[in-house]
Amino acid sequence: xxxKKKNIILIIPAFLIMGAAVGIQTQSILKQTVIGLLMGIxxxxxxxxxxxxxxx
Length: 56
Prior knowledge:
The protein is mainly α. It has helices at 11-26, 29-55.
């Protein structure tokens, strides 16, 4: 079996792009992009902590 790659860091730009897409639709692109970036960082650290706890 191939070893599973840990690409959890890719969740941050994904939320950034989703925030920008929502911002384009609601005419507040900067605000929504910043919210997407912050949510991506929060979810990244949450998943990192959860994975560390599961692996121990």
